[in-house]
Amino acid sequence: MGQKNSEVLKSEELLREYSSARAKWAKQAIEDDEFRNGMQWTKQQVDTLRSRAQEPLVVNVLHPAVEQAKAMLTSNHPRFQSTGREDSDVKTGKVFSDLMAWVWDYSNGNNELKTIIDDYYVKGMGCMMVYYDPNDDFGKGEIKLKAIDPLNVYIDPSSQSTILEDASHVIVSKIHSETQLIAQFPEYEEIIKTATESVVAPSESSTREALNDQMVTQSELQSFRTSSKDERYLEVIERYTKIKVPHYRTYDPHANAEKILTEETYEEYKEQPAFIVNSAGGTQIVTKPELVGEHMSIYKEHGAVFHQMQNPMNGESYIMSGIEHPEAIPQSTVQLELKTIGELIEEEEIVSNEITIDRVKQCVSVGGEMLYQTVMPVSNYPIVTFMNRHNRNPYPVSDIRLVKGLQEYINKIRSLMIAHASSSTNTKLLVPRGSINKAQLETEWSRAGTGVLEFDPELGQPVSMAPMPLPNELYKNEADARADVERILGLYSIMQGDSSQMPNTYKGTIAIDEYGQRRIKSKRDDIEFGLNIIAKIVVEMIQATYTSHKVLRLLQPNSKAREVGINVPLY
User: Fold this and answer.
1) Are 284 and 255 in contact (CB under 8 A)?
2) What pLDDT score was predicted for residue 361?
3) CA-to-CA separations, 67 to 38, 63, 70, in angstroms, rounded
4) Residues 6 or more apart in contact with residue 60 via CB below 8 angstroms
5) Which residue, of 54, 152, 398, 478, has the greatest Cβ tally within 10 A?
6) How many CB atoms lie within 10 A of CB 154?
7) Is the Cβ–Cβ distance between 394 and 169 less than 8 Å?
8) pLDDT value at position 520?
9) By C-alpha distance, which of 569, 562, 526, 529 is closest to 547?
10) Which is nearest to 126 in space by CA: 421, 523, 569, 461?
11) Measured on CA atoms in the order 209, 214, 218, 219, is the torsion positive or negative?
12) CA separation (Å) from 281 to 5, 72, 278?
């Protein structure tokens, strides 16, 4: 129990440390997400504009740019291909390709990838998790993928790798309701009920005004959790730590097989039977399981020594136990010596070396209580990050942050244009004091069509005042700001179907569109690199998860359906 408490304490201390280090980045990520969703004016700016009878308009250039980037990066769905290093691995490589395609489709990978790319552009980092669901497929277990909110991921601040391979710890913290946790982990119901309810600190209040009642941050949800009396909310902390685990590498030259075994499986492997077969043709060591099974049945039926006899009636041969018979087939005597793999290792017939390999330890705690801990059969963290503008720290900069100033500039210019148009349609009229009723003047002047106003000519003539026209340079400034946003993001208007920027020829349009996509190919390389890391993690989990007979039915619209079976018994 003390060990469990120390692990929980370590998780909570690391969470506080990592949360403090990334506070500035988290605040920026939330603000960037709000900004993309139309919350682009501060409350002070909104109050000032409305006091002048002006409406704070949002000309959102960023949202369509992000959607265009998502459309371009997900136009072709990811396909995974595994190629064998040699001819004997071709079939195995094909099986792994099919299994990766199955895991991706079963987890709705295309939809999860769109969420990751959205976080990649807006928050600076997208995150995908590979996990094992033991209850899926009727208890056989299934490997799944899912996108997680990068604001729930806390990374070692000293990490400099884009895929966290040098991070000491990675923590995922999220608030769950007690009912949800019990439904997900019914075997830990007693622990969940004794867990301490989390006191969630309020999130950073938004610095922008939601003109259309957008709900982007978690502040509203946290206030609901605080006021809820019918449900308890608990904080679940998942800590992933890289550790060194002793393993054994064995090479059997007789079966041409190499194995990487844990301490438990190594002991089981040493107990497996093997045979030394002595015959006229020489001595042979048999370690292949299927051949060992055949020799074991003969050994049990006929003993350690036997020879072959020939039936004089039909010429068929048969096995006879004991020493060689005078009528036995010459040089047909076989002597079997039963061994174990452990004895062959001691005799150096099988090579065995003790090694240490990287593994990931997972500690899951809820409300100050240890839920469970396990060592995952992977060498990389099951959380893969897709970082945008990486500065050798786990706090990347998003594209939205680079163009926020230009977006605010566009909004202010458009607001000035609308205010000028409103002033132009409502001409100001200067009249001598006391010559006319001011309330009647405002009422009649605001009406459309012909208006009749009476005034006293002895008190002076009315003077009409119109605002000065806006310079054309102001309209050009807004167009230039839009072009700057497109240039920084690498998503030009012609790529979104803007016909005003297209050349007169078809080939010229295709060429410019191709040139424009060169910038986003760098982003695509980042995404594909992360997907390759995910595939490596999935392959490691496949080898440890899919150990029973399992049939996967893969539907391929571009070819005939194919059924793939794994772990199918051969004998």
Assistant:
1) no
2) 94
3) 14, 6, 5
4) 36, 38, 40, 407
5) 398
6) 25
7) no
8) 82
9) 569
10) 523
11) positive
12) 64, 66, 8
Q: Tell me, what's the pLDDT at 517?
A: 74
Q: What is the DSSP letter of 87?
A: G
Q: How far apart are CA 151 and CA 121, in angstroms?
A: 14
The Cα–Cα gap between 464 and 462 comes to 7
Question: From CA 119, how far away is CA 128, in angstroms rounded?
Answer: 11
Cβ atoms 252, 234 nearer than 8 A:
no
Rg (CA), the chain: 36
3-state secondary structure of 463: strand
The helix/strand/coil state of 409 is helix
Return the number of other C-beta atoms located less than 10 Å from residue 346's C-beta: 12
C-beta separation of 127 from 135 below 8 A: no
Q: Cα separation of 232 and 193, whole Å?
A: 9
What burial letters (b/e) apply to 134-148, b meaning 16+ CB within 10 Å? Answer: eeeeeeebbbbbebb
Three-state secondary structure call for residue 267: helix
The beta strand positions in 169-255, using DSSP E, are 169-177, 233-252
Cα–chain center distance at 264? 32
Residue closest to 474 by CA, chosen among 426, 422, 421, 425: 421
Cα–Cα distance, 496 to 498 (Å, whole number): 6
Residues 342 and 268: their CA atoms lie apart, in Å, by: 10
Residue 185 near residue 234 (C-beta atoms within 8 A): no
- Joined together, the tokens standing for residue 20 give 């403090």
CB 68: neighbour CB atoms within 10 A? 19
Q: Which residues pair with 318 in a beta bridge?
A: 309
Residue 9 confidence (pLDDT): 92
- For the record, the structure tokens of 37 come out as 């969703």
Residue 389 β-bridge partners: 397
Rounded to whole angstroms, the Cα distance separating 388 from 490 reads 14
C-alpha dihedral (181, 185, 188, 189), degrees to nearest 10:
50
Low-confidence ranges of the chain (pLDDT < 50): 1-3, 450, 557, 570-571
pLDDT in tens, 99-131: 888 889 889 989 999 999 999 999 999 999 999
The pair of structure tokens assigned to 408 is 């605010």
Contact yes or no for 339/278 (Cβ under 8 A):
no
Which amino acid would we find at residue 535? A
| Structure confidence at residue 1 (pLDDT) | 42
Rounded-to-integer distance, Cα 55 and Cα 341, Å: 82
Task: Return the SS3 of 558.
Answer: coil
- Cα 395 to chain centroid distance, Å, stands at 17
- At residue 6, the 3 state secondary structure works out as helix
